[in-house]
Every structure is written in structure tokens, then in C-alpha cells.
Amino acid sequence: MSDVPGAPADLLRSLTRAERLLSRRLGAVLADDALTIEAWRVLCLLADGQGHPMSEVSAEASLPPGTLTKLVDQLVDRNLVFRRIDPMDRRRIRAYLTARGRREHARLDERVRASLAELGISQTVALDAPQAAGLIGALDDLIDRLDPARRATPATRLADSTPAGITAGQR
Description:
It is a single chain. The chain is mostly helical. The chain has one domain: Winged helix-like DNA-binding domain superfamily/Winged helix DNA-binding domain (Arc Repressor Mutant, subunit A), CATH 1.10.10. It is built from 8 helices and 3 strands. It has helices at 8-31, 37-46, 54-60, 65-77, 99-118, 125-128, 130-146, 148-152; strands at 52-53, 81-85, 93-97. The chain has a 3-stranded antiparallel beta sheet with strand order 1-3-2. Strand 2 and strand 3 form a beta hairpin. Helix 1 packs across helix 5. It starts with 7 loop residues before the first helix and ends in a 19-residue tail after the last helix. This is DNA-binding MarR family transcriptional regulator. One of its GO terms (molecular function) is DNA-binding transcription factor activity.
């Protein structure tokens, strides 16, 4: 794309291509369960069990609030997610995984990991694939630099529960 190796255009092209190919691959894995990549992102974020305000879920899943509401409604209908009023701030709604949602997330996480293992991306990234762990760390750093609001918020990051299903504890 550029005559200069490592030019910004090359970075953008490579990141975009990798994201699209990974989304396509994981989308095929999730399609068997009628889940989208966006739904997977929401399930991964909620898998920490802490419950998250809808505004945070919207930001971390990169979905506009109206789209997120429709998606969460669908996940509620499937008994994967439930919503509760935040006990600390009654103006906010927090989303959580149901027991069934936790089981489904765990089951799908195994399938996603198996798909990634076929690519040579280890299930235990931190122990077996330091390059992959380094890449995830570098991407997290890039995201933090590009999104000052994220850097200022100590919220659990979606990157810590990436679409690849790799969690922070495994890095």
C-alpha cells in the first residue's frame, strides 16, 4: 500500500484485514448458535461476573446505545443476560450473565479457542505464545493511546475478553 514499510497506511490496512478475517472465522463458529460477533463481545465483557452499566457495554462493544439495547433484549429473550438497576446509582442499569449465559459463554469459549488453536494461536497465550501475548499487549496499548476515555476509565476492558475469547488472566 505504501512505498515505506511500516507506514501508517500499512498499519491500518493490516489491522483492518486481520480484524475482518478473524471476525469472519469466529462468526462462522458462533453462527451454529445463532450468535453474532457483537453478541459474543457482550457475553465476553459480562463473563467477569461484575455486571456492567449499559453505557459501558455500549462503549466497549463499539455499538450505539439503541443497537446495544436491541441486542441485549435478544440475549435476555434467550435467557443469556439479565438487567438490574445499579444499587449504587439507581439511574443506571447493569447487565449480567445468567447462569445459562455463563454456561453458554464457557462452551462457546472452548469452541472459539479450538478454532484459534487451528491457526496456531495457543489456548494459553501467556505460556505458549509470547508473540501473541505481545501482540495483544501492543494492541491494548494502541487502543489506550487512541481512546483517552478508555485510558481514564478503570473499567474492565473488552480487550481483556476479546472476541478471540482470550482473557486477561491468560495473558
